[in-house]
Amino acid sequence: MVAEAAGKIPLMVHENWRFRPYFRRVKEWLDSGVAGAPLQYRLTLYSSSLLPDANGRLPARERQPFMRTEAPLLVAESLIHQLDVTRWLMGPLDIRAAYIARTCAEVAGETAASIFMETADGRPVLVEGNMSAAGEAPRARDRLKIVCERGVIDLKDGVLSLSGPETRTETFDFDQSYQASFDAAVQHFVDCLAGGEPFETDGPDNLATLKLVEDTYAFAARAARK
Question: What is residue 115's three-state secondary structure?
Fold first, then answer.
């Protein structure tokens, strides 16, 4: 139905993660070719949100009680955003292998995942996450590394850097970037409506992201049966 509605009614999916300022900057760097073509890509999302805090509570479940019974969980609820960002940055992707696991008895769904993909020109891409990683913050921070022909783009702890013949460094506040992504997504919606331009995250675009989610579970189930 979403595909049938394409071009007939305005439809934008509120997929705001790609509107985070640091990912917008990465996109600018890739599009400008400052580091050359990407050769390897890895985006991870680790947190301790499903480990007991000082009061014995699980931060993720306290913040979002629905997680207790939601299954599937990590890929469909969280890593879908990383998959969308990755597809936006790297172009069309195909799942080559996937692993999921349930590491917390207090929730019904999977809490760890590794998703191995390939770009249209055969470049390796990895998206990975774990909600029970000791030593990590309860609120996950994106970590990104893209090895390119002439440099490396690296994001860690809010610091985005470019290494190579040309170097650049920018620092982003997590909380500000979080809110900025919502603001930018809503502004994009308004601007496109006013100007009659297509939405960046329209229905067909989001279907491509949803396909990666579905394929992840299919590949993981296939691997589990072996």
Answer: strand
Percent of the chain with pLDDT over 90: 85
- Contact predicate 109/71, CB 8 Å: yes
For 2-225, which CATH class?
Answer: alpha beta
The Cα–Cα gap between 173 and 151 comes to 24
pLDDT at position 3 over 80: no
pTM of the entire predicted model = 0.94
E-assigned strand segments in 31-177: 38-46, 93-101, 112-119, 124-130, 141-148, 152-156, 159-163, 168-171
Alpha-carbon Rg for the chain in angstroms: 18
> What 3-state class would DSSP assign to 123?
coil
The mean per-residue pLDDT over the stretch 28-53 comes to 96
In this structure, is the dihedral angle defined by the CA atoms of residues 65, 69, 70 and 74, taken in order, positive or negative? positive
* Alpha carbon distance 204, 20 (integer Å): 21
End-to-end CA distance of the chain: 35
Query: Domain segments of the chain: what residues?
Result: 2-225
